[in-house]
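Please, structure for the following, as tokens.
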Amino acid sequence: MPRHPAATAIGVISGTSVDGIDVAALRSDGESLVEPGEGRTYPYEPGLRAALLSLAAQPERVLRDPLAALEQAVTGAHAAAVERFLAETGLPREEVAVVGLHGQTVLHRPEARFTRQLVFGDAAAARLGLPVVDRFRDADVAAGGQGAPLVPLYHRALVAGLGEAGPLAVLNLGGVGNVTYLDGETVIAFDTGPANAMLDDFLFRRTGRSFDEGGRLARSGRADAGIVARFLGNPFFGRPVPKSLDRNAFAATLDWVAGLSDADGAATLAACTVEAQAAALRHLPRPPRRWLVAGGGRHNAVLMDGLRQRLGVPVEAVEAVGWNGDFLEAQCFGFLALRSLRGLPLSLPSTTGVPAPMPGGRHHPVPGRPLPG
């Protein structure tokens, strides 16, 4: 029996690809009961997106500057996305117990016990008239954890509903890839390496397009095996897990493909992404018998075909089991917001390397709206 009654939460995140603000609803007890609801994506205004992408390449500025104006703009964009979501879906505001507002990550350096997500949770709560939880990663990082990935406990709840024997892997191909390995009581998670970020940045520099739709450009080119081998020589792949990455940790790879054609550059970066995910196998107790893939990368046929060839087992988009791969992360932060309010852990030693199961999140209540307990 669940220890807590179910409540409706909204989760909000913009990932490392900075391609839009994902908003999703779910009903959950924060433990075993998960009933996903609707989801929507709202694009950033182009100027704000450009400013965020530029900032991601200026780590020293993130460390030095308060960034108040930019954080205010991000907060406004995320609050407006929630308002649009409520209006478009017809979800009554009074039914929403909490909004889990992850914010926009602009720098993640857990080795220095630093992570920065732009969002003013208090301002968002005041504007929305709804309780908000933010700063999901801070306590984990402050305690010596990686602060990422934070989706594994949500993956665990979803996989429990499938009733399938393990081991299973849930792979998220966002800007950075991360995997959750589930086998009975065992939960292991870590960032696998670059996913869409390198390819997206390459395409934008070369063509002005934000991504390689369906992997068509990569399909037309030939991967440079030497560059792929050099990429796999990065010490990150041999580091013990759990581990996490900043979006731009592999930015030098873009310099290595500078002399290639658009097609060959895209093919090479796609091959690097596939090999980064396959390298995760060395850190898993047993090879997963099935991989379920979420995130934008699941729409790239070159990535998916490459993963099937390299892993040798079924590799399927999460829609194959009835999940919505566009909104798993947004749903997750609604789920984690409920866990945060109830004092439950958001991360485990086996998912982030934190010393003990770690609660987290900062709470922003509003008058007249009791928090679920």
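The mean pLDDT is 94. The first strand starts at residue 7 and ends at 14.
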